[in-house]
Amino acid sequence: MVGLSVAWFLQEHGVDVTVLERDHIAAGSSWGNAGWLTPGITAPLPEPAVLAYGLRAVLSPSSPVYVPLRPQAELLRFLGGFARNSTELRWRRGMRAYAPLNALALGAFDRLALGGVDATTERADPFLACFRTAEERALLLNELKHIGDAGQEVKYEAISGAEARRAEPSLSAEVGAAVRIHEQRYIHPPRFMDALAASVRARGGEIRTGVTVKRLRDDGNAVSILDATGAVQRFDAVVVASGAWLSELARSFGVRRVVQAGRGYSFTVAARHLPSGPVYFPAQRIACTPLTFSGGDRLRIAGMMEFRSPCAPLDQRRIQAMVTAVGPLMEGLDLQTRRDEWVGSRPCTADGLPMIGGTTSGRVFVAGGHGMWGVSLGPITGELLARRIMTDRDDPLLAPFDPTR
Description:
The chain is an alpha+beta fold.
């Protein structure tokens, strides 16, 4: 989402763009995610509540947040920074940085649609966050209050479990409390990615798939790109938007922050009663989205935050942990006949803020590290970065996300 959005908005300025993709369109975390456009809950991932999991919990394969038993040096460095940033003071500072982007996020999707991207965004009104108890719900209500204190307007109300079940009959009696959040949206991720790529091509852009970039070099007049075949290409400027692999290419241009894969899992199931919109279980970190596939309507169930190598294979223990978590909370799901089992690597930074902007080279730019929010913030990231590149003027909205911070 991020890379294609940058390309599309650069085209708005009349730029000829070439997109180099290591696999195929949406092969990474843009494919199997929940597809939520939820600026109302977009916030830094490091927060005091995450530290409350404790060491024993994060080492358990069934935990919503999982760390391998023997983390490598780079992961240890990331985890140390993550822990340092999981304070209320730093979370609030990060939230103040997010708030202006969140306010603009949905408008950027509207501008894509007006510009010819043939994919819809669906209203998620209401968007339900569900809990077993009112005590569990208190954490989200507190977070929403702090989001409002940071200057971002969020419309929501606390409701009972009975009210939530009337809105979504697929919820079980285990749901005893909920929060209804308004004015959010969602997309069908694979369809949206295909439509965005088609629009980039229709406007004259080139998308080359199956290209693994190995090295970038700024020779003063252009940026040379060396790919895995040994071929060298030259461009006036380059934007690195390579997700969990961002550090490999950007490090030599002053981008020292670790970008760690925060792997998420998903699968789809048939449902006796498909929810009318997204349903979120924050305590279990489970996201449910109704989507239409060629074989019919299905519910995509997504979740987990697994700090592990992006190249590691799918771990069935994570899938089973999600099944165990969501089973008691929803009724009528065929959890034993799953399809589309998937794992993808969200690009996470230790301070929970993406990296959007220039580097020590005036020709190399970065767009990545959005964690769970790359889909929601991808288009506004592309719009702001394209303007930054073309005007060569610093944007105060992007100052907190400086890649060389």
